[in-house]
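Fill-in record for FAS1 domain-containing protein.
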Amino acid sequence: MRTTTLILTFLWLASLVTSRSLVDTLKKDDRFTELVHQLNRTQLLRDLERFDTGTVFAPVNKAFDKENLSRAALLYHVLPNEVTTQDFYDGQLLGTSYHRQKLKVTKQKKNQWAVGNNDAKIIDADVETDNGVIQVIDSVLKPLDDLTQTLLHDDDLEEFGDLVKRSKLDRELKRVNGFTVFATKDVLDGLSDDVKAYLDHSPVDLAKVLGHQIHAGPIYSYDLEFGKKEYSTLQGEPIIVEVNKNNEITVNGAKVIRHDILASNGVIHLVEKPILPKNRGFLHMDVRKALISVNASKFVRMLEDYGLHSYLESKAAQTILAPTNDVLKDDEHDHSQSAVVSWLKYHIINDKYTKDNLSDGQLLQTQSAHHLGDHMHQRLPIHIVDKDIIQFGGSGVSACPKLIDNSIVYPLARPLAMPRSALGQLPLDLDLSTFVASLYASKASDVVDSAEGITLLAPTNKAFQNLGLVTKHLLQSPEKLANVIGFQTLTDLFYYNDKDHHCGMTLSKEKRCFNTSIIDQPNTLVSNGVIHKVHSLALPCSLEITHQDLLDVAGTNTFYERLIRQDKDILDKDKSYILIAPTDAAMARAKEFVLQIHLVPIDKEDEKRILENENDVTLNTDYEGVSVVFTRNTVRVGQTEADIVDWGKSTRGRGGVIVVNQVLPKPSRQGLAWWQVMLIALAVLAGAALLGAVIYFGYRWWKQRREGYITLDHE
């Protein structure tokens, strides 16, 4: 009995001495000291001792860098079963101990085997142990990336990976487990350029296109059997995977050119051409998609947020001017809702305008009616620099327009600015400073600013100057000035290029007609209408300006006093007069003043000739025998010429006041001119000659008659 026990003990000890387990082999081999250290650090060495069988891909010491490997990374080096190189074949997938992740086997040149996605070479194959086999490799196996990272880091798959990231599918492909991706190059080939541009800015529909190439489950090439099989996709429309007699794999007829590209949470197959879904109704281009395709999704969102989605769904002809996302600022929302709605509508034009339909200076009718009333719409000016450069309201077009059914979309380089208020726009033109001052002086500014749908005929400074004394009088009479300002403001919209002649009611409650010939600068758009810069100032019929009103501002007090003292009734007479009023300085210098010479009766025809600046208009004065010659800048009596300093037209009757720089003199009696004397002398000589001739010929006739008689006394 004792002998038997000794024998058994000896055999047990011998077995211990000759034991060659996976762990023992690794520990005893100096090539694996770093691997043993890492396994022990992560407590995997103890787990490995309990393996009944397995395969360890063991990196040699020099394969390790200074960083420690994680437990997961080490598990990727261990198979739960024994596999020798005799069992290997090219493209074989081995199941590891790490979450069922696969390890790919690749056969290289000269029967060299490599494993893993980093092609770690087996430098010592099939090291046998009692409970498995060790494959010695020259580098550490790298755990697989997830599907997203695998797509992005592979040259063949990078384009597909970029689209996955853009579509936001990358987040899902990081979380899922066991998905299959059928990736392609040129993923969107077969789609129109407009659809491609749309998908470039639409992650939702791009995800649908890519989802048609993703199956929610693992499909490895070795699982496929001969024939066709249908697989579901994330997009919903199934795909057909077929293995033909040549063992070639196709997906919807497109050949798989790389298969079993492993990821930590799935597998990827590279297909030679796109496998787009057959049902692509979700890609049908409409206004919304066209806007998104030009990178105007913010503008689309604003239209939807402010209840204007009907324009996105409209079948009516329209032109949409869309600011792109990179120029549309967030503070566009920092206004009242009505202001934002009006601003959005200002980007939508009634009717469809292609480039061929546009012309320089054209005014397009928008959908915005802000400050114009219920039945009028804001206009948008067009400026064409050349055939390829078009500006809408000062904003250029940043890309080619998109045509969709009855709509056209122009992407804008910057958002449109709504027209300024009239009171904000007018001061920008210094040539209208007198008109601006008149608006505030007459207190008509608030009325003009609050009126809706107006046409403002804004006279230039020169137009005010041309009225002379009338302007001075108006500036001293706010009520009359307000009436004049109101007469420049028509309560309807008249644009320069509508027609040549316009008539309408004004804020002064009088009808006014005007011709476009008076317009110097047309169609300055403002929030409540349009401004035309004009070179004349029209006065309303209701405006009454008398001679006395003009004299009050003429600076001719001395003349006025003499007029009142000698003939004050002339200011009330129905008969029309031009009062030639010398300045006070001229009156002070004058030695003699005859009032009647400065009073010139005038009729309609005479007034017309003077107003039309006809040269040398001669009119009789109230002083008998004295006439006055009116030229463009002077008044002349006889040889004396006075310069016109100022003037103003009366609206009561005809005529007005002309201010001159000197008193007109009383003409003195003078001798005849030399040519008059010459004419008289010639006339006298001619008369004398004629009389002599008559006497001479009369005498001869008488003499002849006398000589012809016979005397009877001598008979």
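KEY FINDING: Residues 147 and 246 are 29 Å apart (CA to CA).
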